[in-house]
């Protein structure tokens, strides 16, 4: 009589059936990152609060006057006019190393972790407590692999953000990977390579557990149709990423704040003592979603409404600034 296949044998069989080596997935993700780098570059600059293009008067859905900032594609055009096409790939080398490190670490850790039944395999079970235990195991493994990947890739993330931030002041202090590592260690010590790590780690952990818990609850207790279940995970991941976006924003800001470049301090960026102070400051000014949208970007600064119902920015009175100095 033939014994039923063990969990390890079932997973090995699935791996054998998959003819594409897992490294292909890593290469594919890095290729997609290369294509999307100009957009990510623009997002980083927006997250840092750099808006070189003036907003234009518009109206919101219900007719309220507002100011609309240019889309990310218009912003890309501005960078290309200033720095040329290759300028859109400022910081790409560090960004590529960051993506490679993350994906390789996740791949290697996933390979050495003990196999856990998938959600589909758990549907054959009747014990609810076993299903919940397996869910906790799967999510914990994902959390650990993501956390370690974020920790080890953080130096490259800091370097890439600072390389891109140099566009604001037209500087070239961080021009190569080795040179950037040397400059950061010289100016801030080894801890400078992990600036902004805590909010990114916190955001990853919250996102993984939030998306996983909601998807597990819906798929296990509400949805019976397998074809619908396939969309639930993607939807919950998208919503969880949106809710935890402020952690990503604060992580980017903290990776550049206090850096010895123009973008690292006033008037471009405030100097923060910690990431919670940064969060509080951005929240007070309604800036925790800064950079989250590609197209519909509304100006959040002080505005006035003219008699004809048009919104416009309140200009800064430079004479007042001179008096205070």
From TrEMBL:
It is found in: Mitochondrion outer membrane. It is a multi-pass membrane protein. Residues 1-21 are annotated as: Disordered. Keywords: Membrane, Mitochondrion, Mitochondrion outer membrane, Repeat, Transmembrane, Transmembrane helix, Transport. GO terms for cellular component: mitochondrial outer membrane. It comes from the Eukaryota. Residues 8-17 have a biased composition (Basic and acidic residues). SUPFAM superfamilies: Mitochondrial carrier (SSF103506). Coiled coil: none annotated. Signal peptide: none annotated. It holds the Pfam family Mito_carr. PANTHER family: LD43650P (PTHR10780:SF18), MITOCHONDRIAL CARRIER HOMOLOG (PTHR10780). Belongs to the mitochondrial carrier (TC 2.A.29) family. This is Mitochondrial carrier2-like. It comes from Tropilaelaps mercedesae.
């Amino acid at each position: 009589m033939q014994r039923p296949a063990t969990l390890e044998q079932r997973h090995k069989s699935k791996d054998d059936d998959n003819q594409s080596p897992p490294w292909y997935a890593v290469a594919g993700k890095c290729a997609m990152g290369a294509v999307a780098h100009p957009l990510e570059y623009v997002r980083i600059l927006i997250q840092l609060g750099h808006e070189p293009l003036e907003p234009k008067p518009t109206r919101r859905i219900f007719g309220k006057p507002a100011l609309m900032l240019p889309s990310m594609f218009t912003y890309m055009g501005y960078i290309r006019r200033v720095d040329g096409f290759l300028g859109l790939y400022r910081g790409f080398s560090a960004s590529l190393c960051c993506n490679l490190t993350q994906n390789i670490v996740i791949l290697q850790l996933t390979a050495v972790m003990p196999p856990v039944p998938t959600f589909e395999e758990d549907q054959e079970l009747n014990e609810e407590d076993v299903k919940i235990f397996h869910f906790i195991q799967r999510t914990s493994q994902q959390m650990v692999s993501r956390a370690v990947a974020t920790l080890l890739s953080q130096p490259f993330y800091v370097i890439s953000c600072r390389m891109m931030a140099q566009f604001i002041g037209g500087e070239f202090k961080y021009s190569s990977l080795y040179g950037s590592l040397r400059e950061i260690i010289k100016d801030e010590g080894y801890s400078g390579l992990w600036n902004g790590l805590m909010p990114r780690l916190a955001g990853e952990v919250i996102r993984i557990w939030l998306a996983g818990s909601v998807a597990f609850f819906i798929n296990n207790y509400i949805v019976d149709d397998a074809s619908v279940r396939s969309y639930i995970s993607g939807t919950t991941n998208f919503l969880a990423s949106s809710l935890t976006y402020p952690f990503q924003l604060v992580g980017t800001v903290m990776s550049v704040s206090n850096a010895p470049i123009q973008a690292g301090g006033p008037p471009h960026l405030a100097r923060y003592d910690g990431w919670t102070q940064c969060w509080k400051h951005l929240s007070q000014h309604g800036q925790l979603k800064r950079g989250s949208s590609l197209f519909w970007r509304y100006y959040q600064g002080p505005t006035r409404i003219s008699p004809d119902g048009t919104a416009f920015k309140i200009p800064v009175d430079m004479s007042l600034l001179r008096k205070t100095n």
